[in-house]
Queue: 3 jobs
Job 1
Amino acid sequence: DILVNNAGGPPPGDFRDWQREDWLKALDANMLTPIELIKACVDGMAERGFGRIVNITS
């Protein structure tokens, strides 16, 4: 099994202009969602004795 996390990216515009909600959306897409996907896959990978997880971020 291979899990590739390659979703997300920053909101458009200058990060100095971001509001708290913009930061939370970015953290959710770029960090929290990949963690949930890993949690959903890792036990099955361990049971089968093989698995690879690739996290791609910008």
Note: Residues 2-55 form one domain.
Job 2
Amino acid sequence: SAYVPPRLAGPQFPAGYVVVVGGIIEGTTVSSIGILDLSTFAWAPSVAVAGGAEVQRPRNSHSATLLRRADGGYGILVVGGGTGDVNNGNPPRGGEDLRDGFWLFGL
């Protein structure tokens, strides 16, 4: 997950928001992207993903960091993690190491 402060979140999110990327839900590694509005603590529509179908692979144990891009805008860079292995106990750790990364835009 990554915190987006109010000065970057815009007027729709006066207290900022937290972006949650992937993780584990009910013992299954997921590829979902959610936004938690810190003003209302309600889930909001998600941001756009740059990169294509490959970036939507389920992942856990990855990193998501808010960074300034080369063009001066901001985005969240998601890198690494794993696919999870249900045979490895709960929560499902291990599996295939993911060596890719992608940007989340629309901040």
Note: The two ends are 14 Å apart (CA to CA).
Job 3
Amino acid sequence: MPLSNWIKETAQLLAQNSAAARRRARTRPRRLAATRFVRSSDREIRGYSESLEDRVLPASLVWVGDLSQQFDGYSPGDSNWDTNSLPQSGDALSFPNISTSRSLSNDSTSGNAYSLDFTSSGYTVTGNTIALTATGIDLQSSAASTVLNTPLTFGNNTTINISAGTTTLAGDLSGTDGLTKTGAGELLISGSANFTGPTQISAGTLNLTGTLTSDSPLEITNTATFTGTGNWSGPVSVSGTVAPGNGTGTLTTGPLTLTPSSTLQLQIAGNSAGQFDCVNSSGAVSLDGTLTIAVDPG
């Protein structure tokens, strides 16, 4: 082959490869939702509409609820979210102030990972499993309670911040990571749990009425309280307060350590079961704190 032809063909090949590389570099995740109706008599396409989103995930979506109470509620050009798109795994979902309580259904793909930010409480979320991202759940209001009936999977050491009020986790809790609870509010776990990562309650209250069957270690710091009538099978270390029961009742734990800064608060309203507080530990118990007893004079 003449040298001039070889140089020409090499230049063309390099140009083609460069163009292909530029096309690949411009490619970004897209979401497409379309509705098409075809009239076969004249081959004319009518009623065509589509919503095309071209953005890099994840995104922040704010609930507007224009169509329904479903996460995946959608019609051409409109959705229940301010972006007119549907949630994708990794997105941050925000729920704004509401004047009345509202029940929402997560009908998006089971196991999608979201963070949940509630600027108002009063929401109840049901439906498919949500895999919480590291930023987890942020509840910023004390107006009313927030209830999550959906199963939750903890990942990347999830944080749940409850500034005030009560957030209830009523669905199954799973995952290889644990959680950190912050904020002065109350976290009520009423469902079953088998996540295995460590759990730290760094502020506020953990109210346990459900059952954790794994060996996840629980730490109650010196600014936090552990209460309820549930069962935490893993080891429990308390530097804050343990107050069994909701009223009076029995709180069941694995091995229990009460550090010198801890307080064990017991109530006695009678001598029958259920009329006095009790901590029932299935393992070794180390008591090195303060005991306070409140007796009902009736």
Note: The chain is about 10% helix and 45% strand.
